[in-house]
Queue: 2 jobs
Job 1
Amino acid sequence: MIRFKSGLGVVIASGALALMPMQLSATDGVEIDHLGVNNTLVRVTGEGKYLILPVQESNDEAAVNIIVDGKLDRTLSVRLAKSKVDYTVPLNLERYAGKNVVLNITTTQNRSTVREAKEDACWSNFAVTDTFDTTNREKFRPAYHHTPLYGWMNDPNGMFYKDGVWHLAFQWNPYGSKWQNLSWGQSTSRDLIHWETQPDAVIEPDGLGMIFSGSSAIDKANSAGFGKDAVVAMYTSAAASQIQSLAWSNDGGYTYNVYPGNPVLTLESEARDPNMFWNPETKEWTLVLAHALDHEMLIFTSPDMKEWTLQSSFGKGLGAQDGVWECPDLFELPVDGSDEKKWVLLCNLNPGGIFGGSATQYFVGDFDGKTFTPDLDADGKVPTKWLDYGKDHYATVSFSDAPDGRRTVIGWMSNWQYAPEVPTMQYRSANTLPREMGLFRGDDGQLYVSSTPSPELEALRSKVFKSVGNMSAGSKPKKYAIPELCEILMTIDPAKAHSVSLELSNALGEHVDMVYDVKSGTLSFDRRHSGIVDFSQDFPAVTYAPVHSSDGKISLRIFIDRSSIEVFGDNGRFVMTNLVFPNAPYSTLDIKADGGNAKIPDFRIYTIND
């Protein structure tokens, strides 16, 4: 298990334990006054670091107004337990030390009398404590992918590299495992594998709204006036409207100060997810902003991150146009095997993904500092291209200031079609493995983005579990045992075979089927019988990726974790990311070919460090 350090004084560890809430007495540092069938006061009378909030996911949200010394500090939306406690979450009380704290709670329960309201499970499970147990209680929590210690997570945000540390912020609800109360949580890493979780949100909702997605950049020249090498974050403040705000950090990105002049950018229509970077050619800041409902990206420039000038727009009528456009990123990449460089514009959208729900499309073209001009295909049209051909790869954005000119990205490993319903509770959602972006020219003359696993990931390998050279595959499956956590590498030469199939299965008969169809030039991924699939009608699915092979041969690099499979083909020329929830780990790999024998000149299985 890859361990995640927690600022809560405990360490999260892997396990297949049932999720058991803490059973606490109403006398543990709180007094409760029921004022009516829908209104209750919870007074904090004891001393401790945390007030424990009991949650029941199926319940409606209650408005929890936090009153500090008689003044409203903030309001949370929490699914307080009614008939049972699914799990608990902590409210940090350290910020209120020495002050009077009262929770004025309004519920939406249908209660006929106060006596009936008193029976709700939450009231006997509030407590003040110095610790909060984040020990893992989820059998599907990944072993080597980043997850929040607890609570809901979606888009990666504000990612940057500084002083040897990768900073990954993310959309986070600390008060439940469904979407709400959005703030920026943060984890840090020195190797893109082991993540240390910061204990509290680094940017929290304020009077301008919840904290939606955005980006961070290092202001090396102090252009914004926050200090040389300040880390400046730009994000969407979301309430009745969506507006753009700033915060800055002078301690390397561990704590932020909210800019008192917010908002710095407003529009008359919905726009969000600002992604900004310093352009050394024009010597100014460039901002790409998603004009969500208009299905376009707006490009602004600024000398100081505070005053922004609209320069152009891109995207109306181009690419996939369903749903909303979100989470842009714009960067330059070299073209493999040449001296040419081109710009890539990432555009995440939901719904409208190639296999339904959310996905990441991209455009390749030129950028002159003000306008992005896309490349055209042989028919004179702007082609639609997809960064990942799985169901579970969204909100992909890159780290700013990555070392050695790298363009390193991370995505959200889920899909808006079913993200709130996946079979976990203590936490929801993980990030993809970090990936390196590149550009290659396909046989059709078009430029495509490649996504290769970041080089740091080779350190995950523990030992060679199986190694076979010059193997052949025919109609009778060859069976190999596989460990629960593993990386599989193989080269496939189909020779005369029409297709080559890989099946991952367990003793319960659950299985994932991957088929390389030589004629169509595709690799399919079928998870319809992969394990738990009935939580959403959109989860059972088959996805397909074009393999971009000129000679029919392909290489595969497959990462298997407890609830995900990521397939990288031909050095990242095609990628598929899909969640799976098997009731028991996959333990067998079957390889077979139809229509003739195929050659497998190289086949290795590595166990993954835990």
Note: The CA atoms of residues 1 and 143 lie 5 Å apart.
Job 2
Amino acid sequence: MIIVPSMAVATPKLTIITVFLIIFFTNPFVCFCRCPLQESEALLSLNFTSIPTYLGTKWTNETDCCEWGGITCDQNKSHVEGISVHDSGIDTSDSGVILDSLCKLPFLTDIDLQEISTSLTAISIPSCVGDLHYLQYLMIRDSGLSGVIPLSICMLINLTYLNLGENQLSGSLPFCLNNLSSLSLLSLSNNRLSGQIPFTWGNLPLLELLDVSFNQLSGTLPLSFSGLSSLTILYAHGNKFNESSPSWALPSSIGSLSLSLNQEITISETFFHNLSNLQEFFLFNCTLNISTSWIPNFQLSELQLVSCQMGGQIPPWISTQFSLESLTLANNGLAGEIPAWLWAMTSLYNLNLSRNHLQGPLFPNGQISIMSILDVSSNALCGHLPSVWPKSRWPPSPSDDPVIWGNPLILMLNDNLFTGNIPPGLCNASVGVKLSLENNKLDGMIPWCLIDEGSSIQNLNLGGNNLEGRMPHGLIVSSHIMSLVLKNNQLTGAFLPSFTIDIISGRYPALQVLDIGHNKFTGHLPKSIGNISSLRVLVMKDNQFNGNILTEIGELNQLQILDLSSNNLSGSIPHNIVLLRAMAVAREDGYQLQSEQELGVDGYSLVSSLGGLDMTSKGTELYYPYILSTLTGIDLSNNQLNGDVPLDFGKLKGLRFLNLSMNHLSGIIPHSLGDMSQLESLDLSSNHLSGDIPSELQSLSYLAYLNLSKNSLSGNIPQGGQMITFENTSYSGNPNLDGCPLPKNCSWPKFATPPPVSIAEHKDEEESEQIPWYQIGVGWSYGAGFLIVVVVLLSVSERWRKKYFKGVDNTLMFLFPFLHNRRL
């Protein structure tokens, strides 16, 4: 009887517990779910060598893969939905085609992989990628992808974004991409794709951006592109499209179009007939055939026409583009003066008219434009520079009355005919990135406010003028400046600027290039140079500096070019010069030193350059327009240096040019020079060096120039490697030196280059190669005699004549039967 009540009590409790468990386990905020084991193993098999710390948790078996950096899962953590990894690297040594692992993540919607390949092993797109039916976003950029694009990619019907740019993909473009009806962005730029663009691509109704630039595509753009009603951006530059006058029916929706760097493309007015919404147009290396009276039916914000064989004056139709913000007309053969209407365009902030034949003053009628980027370099502009420069606007303002803001970023006036003084007003304009006045006819004093601690200039080039005067004593160079070029002027006095740490910001100087060569500076080398830890190029040649070479130079770990030649320096070469770390690394592939410095300002990106370099290499002064990381050299020639050549000079394994000529150096040539595997030019001439030529020099496979002349060397010249390729001028002036190519005790080894042939021997060879005319004459004589005998026999004997002509007749009938038929 007591059982019934206990059952009655237990039933509500069981009900409550059941309801509680149902609510607990169905609550989305209470879940003990984990990433599936097979999916975590698939991610680990991608073999990323490292995951950047900014991505978060490392990838290990001890943690849930949904918590890993760069991984996103669905709300219940039941499946991996997204992977986003940049700059991590993949170890492909044991994994083969490692991207196959992605196919084991069937619920992926987003794949974002960039710069993930660090191995020479090829990475290809797996054909199983078509099994990822939920995929909407696919980016594998700059990751060393090779092979072809698999056709299975056309099965990703939910894909809206496809970017495989900056890889090594080859083969033709997939014709079936029209299956991806939801695709809005397609980028295959910077690959090795070839063939024509499939006409089926015209059936992508939602496509907004198409980028196939920098491939090997040919033919023309298909006429079906007229059906791409959503297309606003089309980049097809850097290919081999070759229709001379394109009849491409491009959709009117296009706002940005680039056809640069193709073949045999001539653009006329009819090409633009349907492009009423065009805002950005880029055309390089083509022909522009447009009349001066043409008025476009669009309003551009950016126009780039480079190397388009335009000729004549700046086209007047550009004046109708009232919204133009950026205009580039470089290398078009333009002549005449810069029209006044160009400076009156209130929205223009970037103007590039470089490499033309423009003449006259920079600003006609004294009108000064307010621009952030102005490049009129390599023209024939003349006159004085304006004494007053206003501040520029940045970013450009769309209003009629733009707000004056900020500093002009780039001002390129180099390689013209400007005269007079450099106006101090340039200091007030506070150029922020680059000011170049190189190779003009400017004179007078340098406004040193351009580089003092109050300046914001990063790159200043005043070389190749007639500037004179002294540098102010106690001048403190701005910590912002990265490149200072004052070469090829008439500057005098001591060069004693201060390069100190900015006390307020605590920053070291940013200076990377210092070139004051070909001036008249005097005194000792400034010890303050030792404070410039960022210095990469130091050129102080052809001045009147004296004293010793600073030991502080050996502490500049970034230095890759040192040129102190043609001065009056004395003492010995500092032995710590062999500690220059940037010259101790042998680099096969080089990057350009600060050649592209991206400056992001409200979405805009600019490019700045540190300029070129004059350097004596291989016995000739050469101009290097760009400073690469592989360009390394030491030139201490034409001084009064004495002592020995540091015996461990060979530690500088990355050195390419070494010139210690025209000094008073003594001792031996260090055997360690044979360790300089990258050495291309070695000049130790006109010194007092003695001893043998080290046999280790034979191992320098890159050595193209060698000058050991005018020393006191002795012994035999090594006869292996590159040593046998040099002429006797490389060794002359060493009386005790023996062996080829010197005439003394020269015995050319087998396979060696033979000595020059004498004039007499050369003459004999020419005569032996002449046509034997006497033999030809004998042959003709025999032939003529035989013919005469035949003619005599035929004329004397009737029997011979009958046999001869019958034989001729039978031969003709055999060869040409139709003659016999005609006779019948």
Note: Helices lie at 3-26, 37-44, 340-343, 425-429, 759-768, 773-796, 798-815, 817-823.
